[in-house]
Structures are given as structure tokens and as C-alpha cells.
Amino acid sequence: MMSRPVLMDISRLLSRAGSAVPTGIDRVELEYALYLSRYFPARVTFVAYHPVGRIGILPRRLTDCFLRMLTRAWTKAKRPWRGASLMAGLLLQAAAVGAVGNTMQRRLYLLLSHHHLMQRDVIARFLGRANAGLAVMVHDLIPIEYPEYARPTEPDRHRQRMDTVGHLAEAVIVPSQAVAESLRHYLAPSGRCPSIGVVHHGCHVSPSAAVPVSGLAPDAPYFVVLGTIEPRKNHLLLLNIWRHMATGHDRARLPHLVIIGRRGWENENIVDMLERCPALQGIVHEHATSSDVVVADLVRNARALLFPSFAEGFGLPLLEALSLGIPCLCSDLPVFREIAGDLPGYLDPLDGPGWERKILDLTEHDTRGQREAPPAFADWPTQAAAGLAMIDGMDRAHAA
After folding, report:
1. Sign of CA dihedral 248, 251, 256, 262
2. Own/partner pairs for 271-276, CB < 8 Å, 24+ apart?
3. Tens of pLDDT along 199-225?
4. What residues form DSSP beta bridges with 260?
5. Domains of the chain, with CATH numbers?
6. What sign results for the dihedral spanned by CA atoms 298, 303, 305, 306?
7. Which residues contact 214 (CB under 8 A, 6 or more apart)?
8. Which of 129, 157, 264, 327 has the greatest number of C-beta atoms within 10 Å?
9. Beta strand 54-57 with 44-50: parallel, antiparallel or unpaired?
10. In this predicted model, what pLDDT tens digit does every residue of 277-321 receive, in sequence order?
11. What spatial distance separates the first Cα and last Cα of the chain, rounded to whole Å?
């Protein structure tokens, strides 16, 4: 564990208080917050950013209650009781006035999301008041490297975030070597690059559903794709494959596709196919919100997880599906090979015929009864501890 007192920022969690399911970054911030709160309560103080341009300390009991409420709600895929949003509002108000206090001991400001990294001046002032160094997690540089997959304003905002990292951070953790290389390449022209450590995310797998999921699982062989519906995830490839199969095969023998994830941005073509393509009706199923238990059960009983993304910083669905022992077909990306090795089947994300052949082969040959014991991946407490230990080591080196 870290030797310095930790000021952990949970601004992103406050902003997501009304959401029924977490994104990947939401889960990362929550798991680190829970780990610190449970195992090192005396060393962590939670803080948050207020839009007035101030970062302040949060009341501990209310914060712990808020974290427990989010955990319960997101496990069940239910929107948190409206009290969670009220509680988030109270905590945000507290951040506007919460003094960081005077201390002779240097502290560490831990920011694990990209939430307000573009606010360099605000963060710099806070570091000065709090007598703290900055440790951050950079999840990816996709908006900079692949601006075509981001909202129009996001590339510039992400450059501002990475510039803050380059100017202020003392330690950076990233989820993959691929992200580390991207960050070093981006910061190289500035002449200043903080210490960067690679720590994979933890694996969160729920037990099999205690209740039947027949209302969600198709009564036919099916495949699952898991993640926000956006162009970068390449849902369009799969929808075109299923449309092609629906026009060239007996529909009664077709596999189904289960899409799990909320609708994101810049996805008009995908939504049009989901809502208006007659060939896909009845064989493609969309579920925006499902509990962790139900998602795990849907994935566990699928023929395979499909993950045809064009770019990823990590790939939590891949890790979690492999831990359940199901086959995975994914894009041939360096980050996937880094975290999963030779376990998945790899395909070019533009190779539609190749994906279709693999899908039909897995449909014809059911391997569910022949699967070997799934590999063991590190859980979240283990990886949160590893991340904090990594920061601690970089912090000691920086101090020396």
C-alpha cells in the first residue's frame, strides 16, 4: 500500500449516480474506491471536482454510503434509488467548500478517470493547496489516435487531458502496454514524460444467474457482443453479417445475435439497421441494461463472444468472457494479444467473410460441453492493490 496519504477523486462516480449500469471506466474508479475504503480507510480521503473550479474534500460517512449504494444498484442493473442522485448532489456541494487542510506530510492526489483532466489550472492549484503530487490513470488515447470514432469536440479535449498529464503528473498507470507506448509517443515532443506503469484491470465475474433468463436468451444458438453501441466497436460488421446470413440461409437454422450495451454516439447507421432492417428482426436482440448476474449467464451460454473493435485500451468483456470459459472471436489488436495471448480466435475487423465462416462453424459445432477449465485472471482487489503498489514505487523513485 502507498506510504503517503491518498486523496482519491470520485468525480466521475458522482456524475454517474443516476445510471443503471457502469461503463468500464466507472467500474475501475468504483473498484479502486471500494478497495481503499475497505482495506485502508485511515489513509484515504475522498475528494471531487466542482464546476465552480474547485476540488474539495468529501464527508466520509456520506461518501461510503454513496459507494455502497452504487455497488448494490449496478450489480442488479437498476437505476440507483433517487436518493443516490440527491446524495451525489450533496457531495458535490461539499466539494465546493471542503477545505483540503494543512499538513506537513506530502499527499498523493489519485485521479483514475479522465473526468476533469482538461482543467490543468484547477488541478495545479489543488496540488499546491493540498501539498500533493498527482497520480493518474490514462485509459487510452483513442480520441487522439482515432478521432473519427469520437465526438467532434473530444480530440481537442483529450489533448488537453494528456497535456495535463505531461505537465503535472508524477506517476501514471495504464491498463496495457499498448496504451503506455501511445502515451510515451504523444508526450515525447514535450520533453517531459512521467513514470508510466502497466497494470491490467481486474476481472469481475458474477455467479450464474439464480433465476431463469429465458426471457432474454434466444431459444436458438446465439452469440454475444458486449459494450457501448458506437462505431469503434464495429457492430455494423456483425449486423451486415447477420443480414447476409438471413438472406442466404434458412432463418430457422440461423444463429442469433445478442447485443448487450447502451446506445452511444455517432451510431445512426447502426440504430437504423437495428430498428428498420426487416432481415434482422427476430434474430438480433438488443439489451441496453442487464444485471451483472444476467450478463454473465447470457455470456456463459453463448456459442462465443464477438469483439470486432477497431481500437481498444484494454478489453474487459474479452477478459471476463474468457474467465467463463467460452470461446471468443476478436479483432487482431496488440492489446488483445497482450491480455489474452492465444486463447481467442483473431480476425481482421474488416474481414466480413472470415467472421461469418467462424460464426457458422461455431454454430454447427457446439463446443460448450467440451470446454476446458477456464483460465484464472486476477480479480479486482488484487489488481487495485497492484496498481496502488505500482504508484507507490514510482512515487518513491520520484521523491528520490
Report:
1. positive
2. 271/229, 273/236, 273/239, 273/240, 273/243, 274/239
3. 999 987 766 655 555 567 888 999 999
4. 226, 287
5. 6-202+379-399 (3.40.50), 222-370 (3.40.50.2000)
6. negative
7. none
8. 327
9. antiparallel
10. 999 999 999 998 777 778 888 998 999 999 999 999 999 999 999
11. 18
